[in-house]
Amino acid sequence: SVFAVLLAFLFASWKAIFFATLISAVLSQFSQPSGLKLFKQHVPSDQVQAGTAMLQTITAVFMIIGPMLGAFVYQKFGITTSICVMAVAFLLSAGVLFFLPEQDQAAPSRSGLTVWQELKAGLRYVWASPLLRTLCGVYGAAGLGVGVCQPLGVFIVVERLGLPKDSLQWLLATNGVAMLVG
């Protein structure tokens, strides 16, 4: 997905970046459950709570530092370098996966269902429960709200506050601090 953003930027219109970003967001949602499974698989059960707390803290710290570093790299070196740095970071994070211990071969195999069959079964299960349906609706509305409001940050900083667009990093860093405190 990182490379799709880079290719869209280099060879297509800037509007294609929105499509590549959509793909990136969708793929990141698929990677979260597998990341949690890897976490539970490789971290001893008595350390899962501490590990989860550390993971959330690191995420919040990078939400603070990330916008500042990203704005610095963008201002000093330009958009192409920024996207290339993001691609290198992606490759390094993918490379870390090679250092994970191998999965137990003694683990029982799946029931032979395809990914689509499992997805359909999961959706049927969620749809059958009124509580889970409501929860999905709330998460969907919250996600849509965040998705609509997040681009408005640039508008608020530039148009309403009259600040340069580079000041957006401080608004995003405040979001990271709030996440860390909460």
Automatic annotation (TrEMBL):
Pfam families in alphabetical order: MFS_1
Molecular functions per Gene Ontology: transmembrane transporter activity
InterPro entries: MFS (IPR011701), MFS_trans_sf (IPR036259)
TM regions (residue ranges): 6-27, 48-73, 79-100
Keywords: Cell membrane, Membrane, Transmembrane, Transmembrane helix
Compartments it resides in: Cell membrane
Membrane topology listed for this record: Multi-pass membrane protein
Cellular component terms (Gene Ontology): plasma membrane
Superkingdom assignment: Bacteria
Keyword Nucleus: no
Name used for this protein in its record: MFS transporter
Lineage: Bacteria, Bacillati, Bacillota, Bacilli, Bacillales
